[in-house]
């Protein structure tokens, strides 16, 4: 480092030799120019890139703060039990069921589209007996829109031996004319504004449905009343 400085000083002191020597200095700087230029070019683009990132980040953060995402809303619109029967054979009892359900998913956000990446639903009877699980189709939603999703739970669930709770609940609710079925849903979704996707949201949805007994004409006439489900952990 010190030597070139001395040389430069030497050139300054000897202007006559300057012109002849300077090209050599220019040559050496030209030789190192490509790497030097490449490096400063990379620096330049890196600075621009960083600046753009920071600006985009600030804009997204500002928009996010201004338009705080609102929780989705879920409703059970229709629910029909075409079969709901507890049968005993010896010690062993089982519940046969066929539940057809229409749910509506509402995206109340003015600025965000929603993209459901996963949506699973579990049905259980009387909090005691798990009936079955279904994977609902994935879907995308525009802002301020509602999507209807129909699904069916059908099959037979074995009542654990010695568990009286299901039988008791079944007898009581059959007399009341309505069966209480709980639907729990586990969703994974992302919000999207123009091209920017949010992190994953994993809300849990809980719907308690009172569905007319398929064998009770009075209840069937009264029908099922649509309910709003509870949505937890929309964060
Ligand atoms: C319902 O269960 C009873 C016994 O508990 C049985 O006799 C009847 O056949 C069953 N009905 C259906 C539709 O499965
Ligand atoms: C019913 O259960 C008892 C024990 O809890 C058992 O000894 C008996 O064999 C069972 N009967 C049938 C029909 O499964
Ligand atoms: C369940 O009910 C629906 C309509 O109520 C019917 O189309 C379907 O065949 C039923 N499934 C079974 C297994 O009975
Ligand atoms: C049918 O349901 C009504 C309520 O909708 C209830 O009051 C009545 O007891 C039920 N009838 C039978 C036979 O279970």
Automatic annotation (TrEMBL):
Presence of keyword Amino-acid biosynthesis: no
GO-annotated cellular components: plasma membrane
Entry annotated with the keyword Phosphoprotein: no
GO biological process terms on file: defense response to other organism
Location in or out of the cell: Membrane
Transmembrane segments: 39-67
UniProt keyword list: Membrane, Transmembrane, Transmembrane helix
Official protein name in the record: Late embryogenesis abundant protein LEA-2 subgroup domain-containing protein
Organism: Vanilla planifolia (Vanilla)
